[in-house]
Design goal:
Blueprint lengths: L3 E5 L4 E7 L5 E5 L6 H11 L2 E6 L11 H8 L2 E5 L9 E3 L4 E4 L2 E7 L8 E5 L2 E5 L2 E2 L2 E2 L9 H11 L8 E4 L9 E2 H7 L8 H9 L9 H8 L10 H5 L10 E3 L1 H9 L3 E5 L3 H7 L6 E2 L12 H12 L3 E5 L5 H11 L4 E4 L7 H7 L16
Parallel strand pairs: 3-4, 4-5, 5-6, 10-13, 15-19, 16-17, 16-18, 18-19
Antiparallel strand pairs: 1-2, 2-3, 7-8, 8-9, 9-10, 11-12, 13-14
Helix pairs in contact: 3-5
The structure holds glutathione (GSH) and fe (ii) ion.
Length: about 375
């Protein structure tokens, strides 16, 4: 049984529809907003009921139609846990499965193109998103990408699948449609026969132009392509404060700024707190207790240099959003555009009482790691 493969020429993106032949329950991978009519027509033509929309990552080159499809068809939305797509109903972890009829799709965490990127296995097929492309791979120069992580995802996760597995990529820029694990293992120009060091050097030297729609696409994709939601204003705009620092931002907005390379995240918790509870990949650790003398602190100096060099904002994170305000004020005194991240890493227990859910970085489906 094969997936239905659909192509969006404007972004060279593949969308896939998988379905159970007897129940007609269907799942769609990486749907594109401009192609929603085509996709709805495809579902009608095959007599399918859409039960899942699934993203391989938060795309930088097109906007997803997942939110709209969910509204129109009643499908549930799923996205990788580490992508910060807070609106997705299911935040997928490695090895999770999604069922549609009697069929099931298995998630593999394959970081590298972005930190949260996943691939999905269905029967003898793998949908690789932008992790593995035909005779290529996704770039690693934005959205917390990492060439070293990508090397391991390719060689240890995807190339561990049977050679006969059909590879269905997220894009192809040269008119090809699919490949196999065996073929890519043997001939992929970026990775076949290469050491991790060779691969990292090659990826670091690519210097690709940035995707045309990245500034518009990433923020939209963090809300499943839908901009209005309950927290809309708070989510996507900084909130002005009484003074002393530039403003308050939601964890989602802070993450969006980080992904777009517009902000440096400084974590002011202690090393012990971070090790115990978890940390945000890419954050600069400068514990609050070091701040009085902070202009002398080499880690802080690095963060400041980075921020100042790129005209970047500083976004400050602590446990519950108290120390980060003090740090934002101190950073403002030092001449930086500094914002406090509301409700910190763990969320404010009062917010839980008021809204019935705990806020904070780790309760919004944003990327974080333990150790
Ligand atoms: N020209 C495209 C950019 C394409 C692009 O950068 N694609 C990303 C995937 S989101 C990639 O990883 N490309 C790999 C490559 O070009 O080798 C655009 O402006 O949208
Ligand atoms: Fe991508």
């Amino acid at each position: 049984m094969k997936p239905i493969q659909l192509f969006d020429p404007a972004s060279s993106t593949f969308t896939y529809v998988l379905f159970d032949q007897s129940t007609r329950d269907a799942l769609i991978i990486d749907p594109v907003d401009d192609q929603i009519e085509r996709d709805l027509a495809t579902l009608r033509e095959y007599g399918l009921k859409l039960v899942w929309t699934v993203e391989t990552h938060a795309h930088a080159d097109h906007i997803t139609s997942a939110g709209k499809l969910a509204e129109l068809t009643g499908a549930k939305t799923a996205a990788p846990f580490g992508c910060g797509i807070g609106t997705a109903g299911v935040q997928l972890q490695h090895a999770d499965t999604l069922s549609f009829g009697g069929e099931s799709l298995r998630a593999l965490h394959t970081p590298g193109h972005t930190a949260g990127s996943m691939s999905f296995v269905w029967r003898e097929h793998v949908f690789t998103g932008d992790t593995l492309l035909i005779n290529g791979c996704g770039r690693t120069d934005f959205q917390s990408g990492s060439a070293a992580d990508l090397y391991r995802s390719l060689t240890q996760v995807l190339f561990a699948l049977p050679d006969a597995t059909t590879v269905w990529p997220g894009h192809d820029y040269q008119g090809r449609s699919h490949s196999t694990i065996g073929q890519e293992k043997a001939t992929n120009a970026r990775v076949a026969g290469k050491s991790e060091a060779d691969f990292v050097a090659l990826m670091d030297a690519l210097e690709l132009p940035k995707p045309r729609r990245i500034d518009e696409a990433v923020p939209a994709n963090l809300t499943s392509g839908i901009r209005h939601d309950a927290d809309g204003a708070l989510l996507m705009q900084p909130r002005a404060t009484q003074g002393g620092y530039a403003g308050d931002v939601s964890p989602q907005l802070a993450w969006q700024w980080m992904q777009a390379g517009q902000a440096v995240l400084v974590d002011v918790r202690t090393d012990a707190e971070r090790e115990w509870v978890g940390f945000v990949p890419g954050a600069v650790p400068v514990a609050w207790k070091q701040w009085p003398g902070m202009a002398m602190n080499p880690q802080f100096d690095d963060a400041v240099r980075q921020a100042a060099a790129g005209g970047n904002k500083l976004v400050l994170l602590c446990r519950s959003g108290v120390r980060s305000i003090a740090a934002a004020k101190r950073a403002t005194e030092l001449g930086l555009e500094a914002y406090n991240i509301l409700e910190g890493f763990e969320g404010d227990p009062d917010a839980q009482a008021h809204r019935g859910r705990r806020g904070g970085w780790r309760h919004h489906g944003l990327p974080w790691r333990q150790n």
